[in-house]
């Protein structure tokens, strides 16, 4: 049976020459910030049965566990540097650990983000990652900076992860190929780091947030922090490729409030539309303009013709059933 320290040594300790002056093996890691840079820090927890199904593929779970944290850095415009991992496991199963660590490090290496420490213990499966990034002082994309007259933009597509969940729960019928394609968005989201970095460096975006709990709820955080409102064209929301073939009602519901998308929502001046499109193309990330920031408080949902929609939508709440 693997001991705690054998587990760490075999599956998570790797020789690295990154930003960490001292990494795994001591009571604390030591990070040396780049001169003149600020550190961005975010932490996310994934709990079996709450954030992922029991028996979820270990490699995909390793990817997603880090991806959701990198998405937070992307929303702030920060470059990933390092992360810690706290892991509770019912048992130290070698096959599971090999798959999980493979998925985790494949994504970490893609963004040159180093594992520098953490903790392991026995218990119900629970994965908690804290990620560290860096950015220039004053460059962070914040929720509290949206301005009346700004456009509202979305990266990528929305809704396929929620569609996959509906398929798994038998809320609707999807054939095997449709479910597999939609589920790829649920299990292996793409953190939009390149877009976030480009937006922060360019100064084009005023406010930003990552879409983790559904666009309606997450955009609501921007509106509350910025003390503004917004008009959102629900029919302009870019649906994922599988969701795009579903009914209009389902598209509207899942794109606007589906959750688990890990795309970016950001605001930028209307005069910067061409510049935003050019910047997004340079970051190899599709974006869509889906609404506008208003001075009047509240979120107004409209259809493609600008007619009000009476949709009862809300973001995911981690303390509701």
How would you describe this protein?
The chain has 321 residues and is α+β, with helices and mostly antiparallel strands. It has helices at 4-11, 58-76, 94-110, 160-168, 176-187, 193-202, 215-226, 248-257, 273-282; strands at 20-22, 30-31, 38-47, 79-89, 114-122, 126-135, 150-155, 207-211, 229-233, 263-269, 287-294, 298-302. The chain is built from nine helices and twelve strands. The strands form three sheets. A six-stranded mixed beta sheet has the order 8-10-7-11-9-12, sandwiched between helices. A four-stranded mixed beta sheet has the order 3-6-4-5, with helices on one face. Helix 3 links the parallel strand 4 and strand 5. The longest helix has 19 residues, at 58-76.
> What is the H/E order?
HEEEHEHEEEHHHEHEHEHEE
Strand order of the largest sheet: 8-10-7-11-9-12
Broad structural category = alpha+beta
Proportion of beta-strand residues: 25-35%
Shape descriptor: globular
- Percent helix, as a range, is 25-40%
**Number of continuous helical runs:** 9
* Average pLDDT taken over every residue: 91
**Cα-to-Cα separation, first versus last residue:** 37 Å
The total count of strands amounts to 12
| Main β sheet profile | 6 strands, mixed
Q: Show unreliable segments.
A: none
CA radius of gyration: 20 Å
